[in-house]
Amino acid sequence: MFGDILSKLRKSRGLSQYELAERLSFSRGKLANYEQGTRQPDFETLEKLADFFDVSTDYLLGRSDSPTPSPIDKDEEEFQAFANNPSLQKWYKDLPMNKEEDLRLLRDMWETIKRNK
């Protein structure tokens, strides 16, 4: 399924396997193996393909019929990226231990920052 989807996306852009492989710094053989289903991409490669074609990884994997994530999925994806970011985990885990007044102040400060962008 992944190989069929990848092939369809590549062809929809009018790219040969050689052209796509060159743009993504892959070998043509590696790309051909993905399309034939004899090789599966690693996470980094899957992300690279999804970014290039501007589709979700779920779409590439055949888990979704929609090329782009729904807003709820996108929100969840962004939250998971935030929650799993090692540099932010300590801060995130400390939040519930604060007083409600401090959390309200933090929310107000964040809203101010967002408005000033």
Question: What is the number of helical segments per DSSP (H or I, 4+ residues)?
Answer: 8
- Sheet with the most strands? none
Between the first and last Cα atoms, what is the distance in angstroms? Answer: 42 Å
- Estimate the global geometry from the Cα principal axes: elongated
Regions with little confidence, pLDDT below 50 for 5+ residues: none
Structural class: mainly alpha
Radius of gyration: 20 Å
Q: Tell me, what is the CATH class of the largest domain?
A: Mainly Alpha
N-to-C series of helices and strands: HHHHHHHH
Give an overview of the whole structure.
Helix content is 69%, strand content 0%. It is mainly α and 117 residues long. The mean pLDDT is 86. The protein is built from eight helices and no strands. The termini are far apart. Helix 1 (2-12) packs across helix 3 and helix 2 packs across helix 3. The chain has helices spanning 2-12, 17-24, 28-36, 43-53, 57-60, 71-83, 86-94, 100-115. It folds into two domains: 2-60, Orthogonal Bundle (434 Repressor (Amino-terminal Domain)), CATH 1.10.260.40; 71-115, no CATH class.
Could you name the key traits of this structure?
434 Repressor (Amino-terminal Domain), 2 domains, 69% helix
